[in-house]
Amino acid sequence: MSQRHDLGVIARSIIDSNQYMTLGTADEAGRPWVSPVWYASAEYREFFWVSSPEATHSRNLATRPQVSIVIFDSRAPIGTGQAVYMSALAEELEGVDLDRSIAIFSRRSEAHGASEWKPQDVRPPAVHRLYRATASEHWVLDPAGHPVHGRALDHRTAVKV
Question: Among candidates 158, 7, 13, 17, which has minimal Cα distance to 86?
């Protein structure tokens, strides 16, 4: 198995084994905001969550859809943590995309002992909306470290998931 393949396995494992992702957004002026959101994923590229359209992160992505995402286990012992970092475009879902995507979100919700979600739960006048971030790039911390500086630097390596 090549190192890149190993890193892809690490990325998929992190996405599969966690329930929350940290979503980084910015407002019109570029002020950053990060929010933990419970997520469901499809093919390690699409990430779905439900939020109020009045939440800061929802308002931010309405005007600036570029987001950053990180998924990690916050309970990992010091020095052993690993994460998946992503660049993505996010949007509120409507129409046909909403029907397909709420089914994906609902399956994960029910698998974790929570409620079923239906399209009417995320359409006006409901309180929540369904959002999707489509990742364009994924990185993980390279266990081998930086090719020149070793482990002294945070060295992320792009991976295919």
Answer: 158
Residue 26 belongs to what H/E stretch?
strand 20-26
Q: What is the pTM of this model?
A: 0.89
Q: Residue 156, exposed/middle/buried by CB under 10 A (0-12, 13-18, 19+)?
A: middle
Query: How many angstroms separate the CA atoms of 83 and 92, rounded?
Result: 25
Please name the residue ranges forming H helices in the chain: 3-17, 56-63, 95-111
Mean per-residue pLDDT for 61-79? 94
CB distance 35 to 53 below 8 Å: no
Rounded to 5, what percent of the chain is helix, strand, coil? 25, 35, 35
Return the pLDDT at 153: 52
Sorted by where each starts, the structural domains of the chain and their CATH numbers stand as 3-159 (2.30.110.10)
Please classify residue 135 by burial: count the beta carbons closer than 10 Å to its beta carbon, then call 0-12 exposed, 13-18 middle and 19+ buried. buried
Tokens coding 104 = 């994906």
**Given a cut of 80, is residue 75 above it in pLDDT?**
yes
User: Which tens digit of pLDDT belongs to each residue from 20-58?
Assistant: 999 999 999 999 999 999 999 999 999 999 999 999 999
